[in-house]
Write a structure and sequence with these properties.
The complex is a heterodimer of chains A (626) and B (420).
Chain A lengths: L13 H26 L2 H6 L4 E6 L6 E2 L5 E13 L10 H7 L4 H14 L5 E8 H10 L6 E11 L5 H4 L2 E3 L2 H6 L9 E3 L2 H5 L1 H4 L4 E7 L5 E4 L15 E3 L3 H10 L5 E7 L4 E8 L12 H10 L8 H4 L8 H11 L14 E4 L2 E4 L9 H6 L3 H13 L6 H14 L21 H8 L23 H12 L3 E2 L5 E4 L13 E2 L4 H17 L3 H4 L7 E7 L7 E8 L6 E7 L5 H18 L5 H9 L19
Parallel strand pairs in A: 2-10
Antiparallel strand pairs in A: 1-8, 2-3, 3-4, 3-5, 6-7, 8-9, 10-16, 11-12, 11-20, 13-14, 15-17, 18-19, 19-20
Helix pairs in contact in A: 3-4, 10-21, 13-15, 13-19
Chain B lengths: L1 H8 L3 H21 L14 H21 L3 H5 L1 H18 L1 E3 L2 E7 L2 E3 L1 H18 L8 H20 L3 H5 L4 H7 L4 H20 L1 H18 L3 H28 L3 H10 L9 H14 L26 H33 L4 H25 L17 H20 L6
Antiparallel strand pairs in B: 1-2, 2-3
Helix pairs in contact in B: 2-3, 2-15, 2-17, 3-17, 5-6, 5-7, 6-7, 6-16, 6-17, 9-16, 10-11, 10-12, 11-12, 14-15, 15-16, 16-17
The chains are: A alpha+beta (626), B mainly alpha (420).
Amino acid sequence: MPNLQDSNLGKENRHLLILSVALIIFSFFLVRLFNVQVINDEYSELAQQNAIRRVNSYPPRGIIFDRNGRKIVVNRPIYDLMVVPNELPKPLDTFELANLIRISPNELKHRLLKATAYSKFKPSLLHAQIRLEDFVNIQERLHDFNGIYAETRTNRTYLYPNAAHLLGYIGEASPDLIAKSNGEYRSGDYVGISGLEKTYENYLKGKRGVQYRYVDVHNREVGQYKEGAFDSLPIPGEDLHLGLDIELQVYAEKLMANKLGSVVAIEPSTGEILALVSAPGYDPNLMVGSLRGKNYKSLSKNPLKPLFNRPLQAMYPPGSIVKSLQALIGQELGLIRSETRFPCGGGYSIGSHTVKCTHTHGALNLEESIQQSCNPYYCYVFKTMVDQNHGLKPKEGYKIWYDFMRKFNVGRKCEIDLPNERNGILPSSEYYDKVFGLNRWKSSSIISLAIGQGEFGMTPLQMAHTMAIFANKGDYYRPHLVRSIGATGQKKMKYREQHHIPVKAKSFLVVQDAMQKVVDQGTATAYGKIDSIVFCGKTGTAQNPHGKDHAVFVCFAPRKNPRIAIAVLIENAGFGGVWAAPVASLMIEKYLLGGTKRPDLEERILKARILPQGIDSSAAPKKITG
Amino acid sequence: MREQKNVFQFIDKPLLWTYVVLTIIGWIAIYSAVYNSNYHNLWDIHQEYGKQMIWILSSWLIMMVLLSVNPRIYHQCGPLVYLVTMVLGLAVAFLGREINGARAWFDIGSFRLQPAEFMKLSTSLMVAFFFANRPIRMDHFGSQIMAGLWLVIPVALLLLQKDTGSALVYASFVLVYYREGLSVNYLIYGLIIALLSVLTLWLGMNTMWVVLPVILVLYVVLAADSRKAFFNGIKLTLPSMALVSGVGYAFEHILLAHQKQRILVLLGKVDDLRGAGYNVHQSLIAIGSGGFWGKGFLQGTQTKFDFVPEQSTDFIFCTIAEEYGFWGSAMLLALFGFLLYRIFAIAERQPGTFGRVFGYSVGCILFIHITINIGMTLGLLPVIGIPLPMISYGGSSLWSFTAMIAILLRLDSGRMLGIR
């Protein structure tokens, strides 16, 4: 072992330098401390009596406009009372304070205890959402209560008692969100919970500001701390301009009064939603303020399910409206032509089962088959596409048909700018392999798909979107509500992108001809035809295992340069031509001509009550006006 | 048994008691920082003071255990402990939990373990082992490289974890190496480098590129022997320019945005009262409002407001300075001063190299922690999140500092019995 002692030779005094360094630094700290704590009294003045109050200033949320610049959603000031328990006067006259803010003394004591439990020194919410009218009285007396002050916020006011499902509502941020938001949200902040308020939360919310103010012993704010050097102004949220036509929306909701169902109207050239109705609706103002919890509860208990956003979430078998699509795909695959005829002896038989035709006619060509909505015709078309598609196996034929349908957003989301949209239902060939066994199925196993029944589900939004694509002969934008955001005036990227479904113009032409005849001299003529407007439509009846069938009508108008594509679905209303077609027809008149020339028809629709048996129309949610 | 009894008899009581007192002061400060009049339960482990109570009691237990271990183990365990902690340090950089940008913590139940804290201890053991087991001449380049290597590994791992504060701690080993023979010139170089770096950040890299040659020219012109002055001058100027460029580059491209901001605020180049500057400003208000005598136990209002950030960890000194004033802060500094003095004195009186090097490592690590932490709260150094030893809330650091002091005490108590 080497002599380790030697390694220390000649270095015995080196510790002196190290100790000196430490001594110098510590002395420097002492001087600095003495300077900050004893000599310089700027800091202690700043800290005097906790005289600085940190007041949040909340930005106004973005305003929502309709396509014609009408305000739909605005803000209204409300006041939150905050309390810093440590600053409260001792003793505190709880009776008087309770009286002032109109709560019971017990409730007040409970809230003060809660605030103290949270922190004696940090502000807690004492009383939320006081209206301006009430706050004026409170403000006058506030100087008697040190430690209590008000923060101004804004809450939503919906100027129309309509469009609740698409606008959505805001509410206090949940503890979970606050924890995850990394300081973005604090307790008591509002956040969009549903609808556009949720989807566009990041644009609408703006940015919170903070102000530091000196407060004197009388609880009065006497000035800015450091001339506002620490302050930040709130940045208002960005406005939303919708493609929605609020008057059309209001009209559609009126037409849908006392009925269950959906109306979706899209501008085909842009994909902008013109109206999006879920019936029954409710007044969005029910979801504002302190009564929101109570109102929400009563709405959620309502048997008509007014909270259910039908156009995006309800899935119905599309029924006969799918024939337009079948006709298009059949032509496109080169399997049928406009003159192709299939026999109709009143039904299409597979073994013991027969798909009946609801109309009486002989063998029809393609155009007539749509006009007359012939079921057997489309069973043959479907059979041709699946079983006899240029020598492909049924599975492969089905796959081609399936892919085609999906191009039209059947069975998948349209990706509208609203939360909770449903996919719809369109089973894949793999699914049928599982159900029937590998390759052990063909068109006859799934023939109900041919006429839009069976394991087939479309949302009303998807139905309207399909019509928009038909109107544009294959071009489309994804359906969306917001046409421009804030000052930049852009819409979201994905809604600026045009999509194209490669289908020959001639195929569309044949189907459009047929759909025009549906309106002019077919299943929708009686209640749908408008004398001055040429348009295309298709009726449908969605099978309902629980009761009377649902009525469906889809259309776009006018045929040349279409400006509106509509899907109307009325639950339990039976055949589509009787109830759904007139609603769409009246909306076209309203949108294109400004009003109807058929007051009798309008009157009949407005008065109609089509509700499931055993449910009283008084169950429909009340609207509040104002 | 006889030996065991003697061991406890020879333990350095002043150092032991200073340590105990500091942990108690720490607990009182944390209690005060998170005090809430409605919860008085000192044992509530959902409160930081409740947890810290557990940390303190367990660290006292660790102290007792480590004091009863045969010190030969400490002489030998360096490499193994070093290896284990470095592997942990590597693992946490990838598997750990990310907090405030650094991936430096393992979650174990409701507690968190920070390997960085134990890396300090293991590096001390490793460096001491390194010096004790072969003759090391710190004036030789090879030895310098070897000695440096033990520091480069943990520093690299800490930078990987994005824990810059803990990486900075290893700079303190320069003093240890100086004590073991590193030329004093390195300290002077270090000082010059620090000075140049600050100047570069303050004046900007481009200005320095102009200033340095101008100084060179002036020096050459004014010197008696211009020729000699030129060669001497160029030898200093070129490395300086390289350094200036390096610092400039590092500042622009390596430091994260918030770190840059903290430095700019400290240099007074940016007035960021809402961000980084706000914390220091509020810290100074809290300290300054303490006055000479302080506001008294639990009376500190600035720290209890939301104003001061990280009140129980990095900014714990604020709470003490606000509640106990200049008097209390000075006493705490004196206590720390005594702690350091005692550690260095113990290190000096060790008969063997191992004890001395280990003692200096412990002393210098504590010293740099205290300096950076208090310097930061006083607004003299940039905001770097490292704990104030024995005082700040946190179990890993307390355990680590406890182990350092315990091992030193054990080595010291054994010295009379002929164990090196």
